[in-house]
Amino acid sequence: MNVKHTIAASVIGILLIPVASRAENAPAPPGALRQSIQREAVRLASARTAAGPPPQHRSWATRHPIALGAILGIVAGGTIAQISDGRVTNSDGRPVFLLGAVPGLLIGSSIGAIIACSHD
Q1: pLDDT at site 106
Q2: What are the residues facing 90 on neighbouring strands?
Q3: Are 65 and 112 a contacting pair, CB within 8 Å?
Q4: How far apart are CA 16 and CA 12, in angstroms?
Q5: Tens digit of pLDDT per residue, the chain (120 long)?
Q6: CA separation for the pair 77, 91 (Å, rounded)
Q7: pLDDT of amino acid 24
Q8: Under a CB-based contact definition with an 8 Å cutoff, are residues 77 and 104 in contact?
């Protein structure tokens, strides 16, 4: 964009800003606002009754029981393995946390799957 375009855009903006502000501040005809509010209230009321009752909001845990079980299993299994061993890594250099987290993941997600099947 060159200087001519910038100046032209600025001049157009300066000329249009007062026109827009006058349109916003123009007084409304008497009763027009009240009629508009009444029309909108009737429209919203009819839309609400046509849509029916609002849907129930369920918590994240009830919508995702397998994921919650997996997360809790990873944390619980890894923590138990870490506390019981007391070392950060085992003799192979693998983190001890993961040695408990993997079985915890399997057990936790399995429990979550059982819960998900029992709720449906």
Answers
A1: 94
A2: none
A3: yes
A4: 6
A5: 566 666 666 666 666 565 545 555 556 566 777 788 888 888 887 776 655 666 678 888 888 999 999 999 999 999 999 898 888 888 888 888 888 999 999 999 999 999 999 876
A6: 19
A7: 54
A8: yes
**What phi and psi, each to the nearest 5 degrees, are found at residue 59?**
-70, 165
Task: Show Cβ contacts of residue 111 under 8 Å, excluding neighbours closer than 6 positions.
Answer: 69, 73
Which distant-in-sequence residues (6+ apart) come within 8 Å of 74 by Cβ? 101, 104, 105, 108
Q: Show the tokens assigned to 110.
A: 């399995």
State the burial class of residue 13 (Cβ atoms within 10 Å of its Cβ: 0-12, 13-18, 19+). Answer: exposed
Domain boundaries, the chain: 61-119
pLDDT value of position 101: 92
Q: Closest Cα to residue 82, out of 104, 112, 66? A: 104
Instruction: Give the tokens for residue 54.
Output: 């609002």
CB-count exposure of residue 53 (10 Å: 0-12, 13-18, 19+): exposed
- Residues 96 and 78: their CA atoms lie apart, in Å, by 7
